[in-house]
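Hi P.,

Sorry for the delay on this. The queue was packed all week, but I finally got your sequence through. Input first:
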Amino acid sequence: MLVSAETGTISGPAGFGHKSGMSESDLPSFHVRLPPRLKERLQASKGSNSLNREIVERLEQTFEDPDFTYELAKIFRPLMRTLSEEDQKTLMMLTAAVIAVLAKGRPRKGR
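Then the structure:
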């Protein structure tokens, strides 16, 4: 995989080293232009993964069976953008409190 530091352009085989089981030379390659901020965020969150693997895993997640938390995030994301940073923090604290209350009602394993 090639990453251009100047342009934020990433080129590399899609799926290399992941679930495809194909070698790097067998996989198609394409270029993606990323805004610098997005590239920085991906780099910061990739952990021990390569940047390519991080991008592939994130893309694959969008095609998996619907995840309730992902669906909630899709609802919250546009709403959060309309709020001030302070209101975003307040909403997140309140949401965490609601989740904590709901978790109390869940039956525990082994009971």
